[in-house]
Amino acid sequence: MVFGGVKKLESTIRHSLEVIDADLYVVLTGCIPEIVGDNTEEVVSGFKDEEKPVIYALTAGFKGNNYKGHEQVIDALTDQYLEPSKIRIKGLVNIWADVPYQDEFWHGNYKELERLVKKLGLTPNIIFGYNRGIENIKKIPAAEFNLLISPWVGLTNMKKMEQKLGIPYLHYPTLPIGAFETSKFLREIGTYAGVPEEKVGSGYIRGRVVLLLLH
Question: How far is CA 24 from the centre of its chain?
């Protein structure tokens, strides 16, 4: 173990800001920095006035697993980067589902969920995957509601966003697979979002989403 790692962390962040062109910088701690008591928060707070945002998440392995780490990073975004919005964009829905790379089909799952939500006339907002990024993250506070498709992972994040950002959430515990579950999924979202029943139950939608394929 090396004590006094905060000095190295400070210089690493400073040089990264100079040579790496990124939109958001995230510092993740491992076991040793937290065991020896390195004050990551203090180091990162020294960069609060930089042009590009720098946040941190305490993700020591002994505190949990990759599911817990995923929640900690989302909480870090909520606590340190996102601010309440004065506007609500009608129909904008933040979609939270698979932990990226945990399921080999995660990217395809997000794409299909996005397609289904669009069929209801809503506008999905997803921050994970190809061609996503900081602009999608910035939209989070303006969403009409959060949609969580997960048994439990991410539920604490939804509660925190509701408390800090004022975004209500709909928790759907299972990934919809097959005609019955997909229909149930669409109807529940439609009811929550106030989508007219005739649109949710239209033959057009039923004919297009008989099966949710996982790519």
Answer: 14
* Strand blocks (E) in the chain: 25-28, 54-57, 92-96, 123-125, 145-149, 169-172
Q: What is the CATH number of domain 92-208?
A: 3.40.50.1980
Question: Are 176 and 191 contacting, i.e. CB atoms less than 8 angstroms apart?
Answer: no
**Domain extent listing, the chain:** 5-63, 92-208
pTM: 0.88
Q: For 120-158, give one letter per residue: b (16+ CB within 10 A) or e.
A: bebbbbbbbbeeeeeebbbbbbbbbbbbbbbeebbbebb
Answer for the pair 214, 115: CB distance below 8 angstroms, yes or no.
Answer: no
54-96 pLDDT per residue, tens? 999 999 999 889 999 999 999 999 999 999 999 999 999 999 9
Nearest residue to 126 via CA among 99, 155, 93, 161: 93
